[in-house]
Amino acid sequence: MSVIKTDKWLLDLYDKPIELCEKLLKHFDGAYADEIYNHLTSHGMYKYPIKNGEDLIRKLQDNKIWEIVHLEKQQLQTLWQGPDIPVFIFPSDPNDRKMKQNQNGKSGLAFKDKLFLFISKDNTEKEIRALFTHEYNHVCRLSRYSKKEEDYVLLDTIILEGLAENAVFERFGDKLLANWTTYYSEDQLEKLWKELILPNKNTLKVKRKHQEILYGLRRYPKMIGYCVGYYLVKKYKKTNELTSKELLGIKSNVIAQV
Fold first, then answer.
1. How far is it, in rounded angstroms, from Cα 231 to Cα 256?
2. Which residue among 68, 131, 141, 150 is the one 20 to 30 A from 86 at the CA level?
3. Number of domains forming the structure of the chain
4. Lowest mean pLDDT among 93-102, 136-145, 196-205
5. Domain identity same for 15 and 116
6. Is 42 helix (H, G, I), strand (E, B) or coil?
7. CB-based contacts of 29, cutoff 8 Å, min separation 6
8. Are residues 60 and 138 in the same domain?
9. Do both 116 and 199 map to the same domain?
């Protein structure tokens, strides 16, 4: 598989997103097009109506988004010996203020067998490369790690996120890291790990508490799960002098040293 030419789809159907998602049906077993669209929009895809949609798509083409991602996919697939999965690129939601503020208007969604990128016209080439690195690392972890994704607990999820952002650091340094990597000091992260994450490390992915801790919702500190995951992976990676590729198959409890 390759980077799918979704720009062609978009030029025909950007104002008919349900029809657009019908093209994805074969990649989602048993799902309906509207369900797929709702799932994708909840992770950053544009919501209809989109103003000047054709102009936006032309701008993404001019920015060579599809070519950039294609080259990144080839490089990382070789570097990490990763799976050959389809990659779908769609415009991100320009009205999502939180995504604009925290992620400069870009987002991604990874599965074991496919990957989605949601891009804005303002994203730079390096930002796109960093985003793809993060998401494709997820794909590689999901395919390499022996545990089924439906059996993931909080510890597995935070390590998944920590691995992905450490891969970004390994390739690009700290300038392209997500904002949340700077939210807390190492002392704070160690305390958050021991007091909040560790006692809840076996919380199943399907439980609401899992998402609350991961993203720092309600009473939990902002993005605590992501931040602690990045901290734990960074510490283990440095101590053992391992590369991102070498970390992909290591068990979560080993990386977290619990």
1. 9
2. 150
3. 2
4. 93-102
5. yes
6. coil
7. none
8. yes
9. no
What is the 8-class DSSP label of residue 177? Answer: S
Examine the domain organization and report whether 90 and 159 are in the same domain. no
Q: Which residue has the tokens 């939180």?
A: 98
- 203 and 241 in a single domain? The answer is yes
Token output for 73: 């996919």
Give me the half-sphere count of Cα atoms (radius 13 Å) on the Cβ side of residue 80. 31
Of 119, 144, 169, the last residue of a domain is 144
C-alpha distances in Å from residue 48, one per residue of 8, 30, 225, 254: 17, 24, 32, 44
Nearest to 45 by CA among 85, 122, 99, 114: 99
The candidate with the shortest Cα–Cα distance to 154, out of 39, 236, 41, 256, is 256
Q: Residue 24: which domain range?
A: 6-144
100 class by beta-carbon count within 10 Å (0-12 exposed, 13-18 middle, 19+ buried)? middle
Average pLDDT over residues 123-147: 96
The verdict on pTM exceeding 0.90 is yes
- SS3 at position 251: coil
pLDDT at 230 > cutoff 80: yes
Number of other residues whose CB lies within 10 A of the CB of residue 6 = 24
